[in-house]
Amino acid sequence: MRPTILDPLFAPITSLSGVGEKVAGLIERVVPADLGGRHARVADLLFTLPHSVIDRRLRPGIALSPEGAIVTLDLRIDRHQPPPRGNHSVPYRVFAHDDTGEISLTFFRAQGQWLERQMPVGEQMVVSGRMEWFNGRPNMVHPDHIAKAEDAASLPLIEPVYPGTAGLSSKVLKRAIDQALGRIPALPEWLDGDALRTHALPAFSAALSALHHPDEPSEAAPESNAWKRLAYDELFAGQIALALVRGSTRRDSGRRMALTGEIAARIRTALPFQLTRSQEQAVAEIDSDLRSDNRMLRLLQGDVGSGKTAVALMAMAGAAEAGRQSALMAPTEILARQHFATIGPLAQKAGLRTAILTGREKGRDRAETLAGLASGEIQLIVGTHALFQEQVEFHDLGLAIVDEQHRFGVHQRLAMNAKGEQPDMLVMTATPIPRTLVLTAFGDMEVSRLTEKPAGRQPIRTVSMPDDRIGELVGRIGDAMADGQKAYWICPLVEESEELDLTAAQKRFESLQKVFGDAVGLVHGKMHGRDKDEAMRRFKEGETRLLVATTVIEVGVDVPDATIIVIEHAERFGLAQLHQLRGRVGRGSKPSSCVLVFKGPLGETAKRRLTIMRETEDGFLIAEEDLKLRGEGEVLGTRQSGTPGFQIARLDVHQDVLAIARDDARLLLSRDPELQSPRGQSVRLLLHLFGREEAVRLLDAG
Ligand SMILES: Nc1ncnc2c1ncn2[C@@H]1O[C@H](COP(=O)(O)OP(=O)(O)OP(=O)(O)O)[C@@H](O)[C@H]1O
Q1: Ligand 1 test: best mutation among 280, 306, 565, 594, most atoms within 8 Å of CB?
Q2: Can you tell me the ipTM of this complex?
Q3: In what residue span(s) does the Helicase ATP-binding domain sit (predicted)?
Q4: Do residues 478 and 610 both lie within one domain?
């Protein structure tokens, strides 16, 4: 149960004045939290931090204001000059002066009456905006702020700038944030007094006020003590949660499995390839976990195409030898089906009974599967989160494998836990997460890494080209198809709307169909499961040779003989995503290529991303570069992307904070494992605030 003191912060943002459903929808696009379908709450809004500030403190007077500078001026209004009636190309001008000279405030398509009320002639005003010298005359087009002299205090001299989205005015967002700040209740301190003093950290609510209303530009930066304080809170909550989850998973020791090696040997024979050295190593590490009394809690980390699935299958063989069931959970239905298509036949050859369970299995099939799981007849099941449903009961689940791809979260792991008696747990991730991130996202889980690609893989040739050369590109793809090759064509990602994504993909599909006819297929997220499967199957089996897709194919799709991937509007994708997408090719022994089609002009960050993609295929390197580039702050208009899984902490800046938070969490739990002390109780509040309710539930469950 959440303590009632937190209610004001957990109310939906629609409880704030000026925030109706429509505004709420817009705000939800910019809050950093993963809302997972729920409405944003007041706390989410508080954690939406400015990505930069505008410094309006420069007050040189009109005559000394430099071209292009943001200045604040104290003006007396002299006269209004409306445009000739009906002529909208001429602006509305308001003339004003100070001791140093005269300035024109210029408004296009302005409401004259409104301006007259805003700036009555003779009134003393404060105005702030960008100075322009136009034909040698001082001018300010659409000042950002206009206030009467007596209201000058309302004009923010250090103005925070928030991530924006079309349709959401910064005024509306700021008003909502200010109300949210007013709702912070008096909360007890949860951080250790020593830590606060040593690092000069402000209190939680003071930190939020400072970040949203900085007195100095540096106060709103990630390096500031205020930001550090919140990063500390978030990381500390994360570390406590991880430790508790781990404790509960480890509480009873695991159950030892007696492996015979028999089924594993049969799988090896059935596999069409030899395992690589690092696959062998991972299999050995997992085997030794399965054999031991301790419960396995292992992360299998491998770059795109490194062959994690085969390792998972070997682990499942081990569980079967010990007479236990195993389950592999995939994040999407496409992936579950694909895993089943590769793993199923191999497992069956080795004599295992297998099944699949997703939202789509219904009626008799589903009933049979459920019965087979409950009786223990089915030894190996592949599925989606449908595996968590209440009706799903295992006879004896010994091994749960979660293919997490790049979604972080302990929720799935906890849910799988509940399905068995201390099942061993393997989490697979395709994202080459840097070491620091492994620590934060996964705590002290054991890690196995696939460090090499299967033998015979050839490097992927990556090129970039501007979109005015698409015609030429289509010709080249045609040649390649005639030559028997298969290609993906990934369509632009449009941030704001899935609908737009779709139209773009559909349009491209139609235009390519005109050239290549039935050889072109289409797959996108809005398609029905069956149609998606069918599109994937036709491409896999070569009935289509060119597959137009939205990013639904980003994770895990495996069509080893596809050799070309075209990514349209590559400038809109992040590095990690580009790397994942590119990983769809180069999965067989044939040479592959990746064509990054961009629409210029490119910003600095986008340019750098494309260069990195051309220069390296090393996922670890790309992940590190990604963190660095993200650290440099994204452009206005996109969601401010911090470290994945975190709202506030940024590991490029807050590494040291992480280390301290980690030690602090350990120390606290060693003294107060149930969080019962006064400080422990405060820490419970913190866990709620940062979305770690599952940890509190564990405590309550004892
Ligand atoms: N040792 C090996 N030798 C040759 N091919 C292999 C080997 N291991 C796996 N493969 C093949 O490599 C391809 C990629 O394997 P898999 O799908 O397991 O990759 P992955 O690690 O899950 O990558 P992603 O995260 O991109 O899905 C598959 O077609 C698989 O059959």
Answers
A1: 306
A2: 0.97
A3: 289-450
A4: yes
